[in-house]
Inverse folding.
């Protein structure tokens, strides 16, 4: 029988290494205002999309936040 991997397990988040857990904590600390709108699971989606590269993840998340705070754009504008 195989032993469990030496990493943290989180409900609905899957396995995280200690380094990944630290990146998630640092991202949560860097964006405290987003806690009302995004869970750790949501932030993990951004981190995983950029393979836990902090600079790329934070740039993508900042871009996302700037887009969702803008007024709705017409459909034609969004598809260009």
């Amino acid at each position: 029988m195989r032993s469990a991997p030496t990493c943290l397990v989180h409900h609905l988040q899957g396995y995280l290494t200690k380094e990944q857990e630290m990146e998630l904590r640092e991202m949560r600390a860097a964006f405290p205002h987003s806690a009302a709108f995004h869970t750790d699971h949501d932030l993990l989606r951004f981190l995983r999309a950029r393979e836990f590269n902090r600079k790329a993840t934070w740039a993508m998340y900042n871009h996302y936040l700037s887009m969702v705070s803008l007024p709705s754009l017409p459909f034609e504008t969004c598809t260009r």
Summary: Residues 18 and 26 are 12 Å apart (CA to CA). Residues 8-78 form a domain with the Helicase, Ruva Protein; domain 3 fold (CATH 1.10.8). Confidence is low (pLDDT under 50) at residues 1-12.
